[in-house]
Design goal:
It is a single chain. By secondary structure, this protein is of the alpha/beta class. It is built from nine helices and 13 strands. Strands 1, 4, 5, 6, 8, 9, 10, 11 and 12 form a nine-stranded mixed beta sheet that branches. The chain has a two-stranded antiparallel ribbon with strand order 2-3. A two-stranded antiparallel ribbon has the order 7-13. Strand 9 and strand 10 form a beta hairpin. The longest helix is centred in the C-terminal third of the chain and has 17 residues, at 182-198.
């Protein structure tokens, strides 16, 4: 399995606490988000990682140069540069197209997530070839959440905004981590190319929704409800991460 960590975005909404630097270098406790990813992936047995960089790429590359020998010495870590990091995140997925189309299973991850180690363990332990991490504690009224809607356990929508007439029986929030079979990883590249041609600011979620909801798709919504995690988009998220999430990670060695 090859992990792909998306870390190219600008994160301007966090400038006051990042000083204009990359989100993944934000420290929580004694370790940055980037270091925590490296430690969690190493503990899970992942030995290949590609980090997609763009905004302040040199800062991330320098951090990797210092961190990898110390915390992930047996991991092969490379970077892929997204020169269009000011555009939609579909461009970041395309920057790692060689990895996604390379015939391996892929673990696709957003870099701006603070999470418990059990979240990753659960995702990797699932039996299905294609797995979506899902927190069912979030409802349709959360405007910021990327919603996952299921009808009879089949994914019928994956978006922040849902169609008014959508029929579903279960809803939750995407954690931003996905385990992709080689076929689905290749399909994601094709769909990112397609949505990118139509809209250069398209998020990769628009392409992933096409893959998940295609005829014959069989994504397993791995239930991560109750496990501590948070996506860091706003200063209030960072405050909650320190106040509520980090203490739980320390207790659970996460």
């Amino acid at each position: 399995m090859h992990a792909v960590l998306l870390a190219a975005g600008m994160g301007r909404r966090l400038d006051d606490i990042t000083g204009g630097g990359p989100k993944c270098l934000l420290p929580f406790g004694k370790a940055s988000l980037l270091e925590r990813h490296l430690r969690r992936l190493t503990a899970a047995g992942i030995d290949r990682l590609t980090v997609v960089v763009g905004f302040e790429a040199m800062q991330i590359e320098q951090a990797l140069g210092a961190l990898v020998p110390e915390v992930a010495p047996e991991m092969t870590v490379t970077t892929a540069h997204n020169p269009a990091f000011r555009q939609g995140s579909a461009k970041s997925v395309l920057a790692a197209a060689d990895v996604l189309a390379g015939g391996d299973e892929v673990l696709l991850m957003d870099a701006d997530v603070l999470y418990d180690h059990r979240l990753l363990d659960t995702l990797l332990a699932a039996d299905a070839a294609d797995v979506l991490g899902m927190d069912r504690s979030v409802g349709a009224d959360d405007a910021e959440a990327v919603k996952v809607c299921l009808d009879d356990e089949r994914i019928v929508a994956f978006d922040k905004v849902l169609p008014a007439d959508l029929a579903y029986d279960t809803i939750g929030e995407s954690v931003g981590f996905f385990r992709l079979s080689p076929a689905s990883a290749k399909a994601l590249v094709r769909e990112c190319e397609r949505v990118g041609r139509a809209d250069e600011d398209a998020p990769y979620e628009a392409a992933l929704q096409r893959v998940m909801c295609a005829d014959g798709a069989a994504f397993d919504p791995a239930d991560l409800t109750g496990l501590p995690w948070i996506e860091i988009d706003y200063p209030v998220d960072a405050e909650r991460a320190v106040r509520d999430i980090l203490p739980q990670l320390q207790i659970n060695h996460g």
